[in-house]
Fold:
Amino acid sequence: MRNTILITLAVPVLALLLVGCSGKKDDSAASHDHQQMNNTMTHDAEMSAEMSGKQAGERFIYYTCPMPEHKHIHSKEPGQCTECGMPLVQAVVTDTAQMEFWGCPMEAHSHVRHENSGKCPECGMNLKPMRLVKN
Structure:
């Protein structure tokens, strides 16, 4: 009789333990799948950045003419410079190791380019390390 009671109590407990362990494996598998998905998304973003000429971690701001004389030409869309016909290039915020100039992140202030950090003389925003992506 005592064995019957122990078995009666032990079976549900074992069943719960097995289900609990199974759930943990599912959580672990889901976590692993989520990690793989994040890795794939990161890889895809890096590949897309490489194809566009941008480095991973850079942020697109606007398109502008690559000629310094036409830095006032800017657009949200790719196109041609209205003064020389050259294809517009992406201006991106980057890290200080890759930067070409300190620039205002506002499209309308694409002409604000300095050698040193500081504030935009037109809007007061902090200048960002920027570069032009030339393919």
